[in-house]
Amino acid sequence: MSAQMDEFDDIKPVVSQDELPKGETILWQARPDWWRLALGAYRLKLVGAWFLAFALWKVGVTHHDTGSWAAGFADAATLLPALGVGVGLIMLLAFLTARATRFTLTSRRLVMRYGVALPAQLNIPLAHVDHAAVRLNADGTGDIPLTIPRNGRPSYFQLWPYARPWKFGAAEPMLRAVPDAAEAARLVADALAASQGGKRGAVPAARTSDADTGRAGFAGAQPAAT
Could you say which residues form the signal peptide (predicted)? Predict the structure, then answer.
């Protein structure tokens, strides 16, 4: 099995050195940036755009019925409390999700621990990672998706919000909203190459995306073959 998915009530987010087998060392640990998580996984901008479109529609409808722009904007202003509550809940959920998440890279595996209500752990041996990639945002954060064998893959909904978007049939785990993603990607690439017999220093190619649109594609990084 390429990856193991476990769920525990008492799991702790941080992997400690004491939990690892003898000879295995921690190379890197981080938790996602909560603001980037809100923008990406929880689609904060999309929610804001929906409220804006609905508000403009209310302005137009009220103006058509009453002939008054003032009445239209006053009517649209009634949406502000709902907008505030919606945005606040998304931001709170993103903050709690980020705080409950830790990504841990060791010399042998990549461990993802996450989950607010029901903590879960995904344990991915580096030797079973087929491919890694990186997508960078303009603020330095980024996403690192991993391609693993189909056998033993968790489902998309088990991985979410740490699943690569739109990969429903063949879910791929993704380190999402990683701070200093370029450095993290370099460490992951080095660990993959070392675990699979390749040269140290294999770094994923990266493209910087617009922080607002996030339109840049994923640039692959295949570790040297054994």
Answer: none
Residue ranges covered by each domain of the chain: 4-32+101-221, 40-95
- Whether 149 contacts 215, CB under 8 Å: no
User: Model's pTM, two decimal places?
Assistant: 0.76
pLDDT of residue 43 exceeding 80: yes
Per DSSP bridges, beta strands 208-209 and 174-178 are: unpaired
Which pLDDT score, from 0 to 100, does residue 10 have? 59
Q: Residue 9 CB: number of other CB atoms within 10 A? A: 6
* Candidate CATH numbers 2.60.40, 3.30.1240, 3.40.50, 2.30.29; the one for domain 4-32+101-221: 2.30.29
The CA distance from 153 to 173, in Å, is 9
Q: Which of 106, 89, 180, 112 is nearest to 143 (CA)?
A: 180
The token pair that represents 98 in the structure block: 């980020």
Residues 189 and 53: their CA atoms lie apart, in Å, by: 43
Task: With both helix axes pointing from N to C terminus, report the angle between 44-66 and 80-99 in degrees, rounded to the nearest 10.
Answer: 180
| Cα(173)–Cα(167) distance, integer angstroms | 10
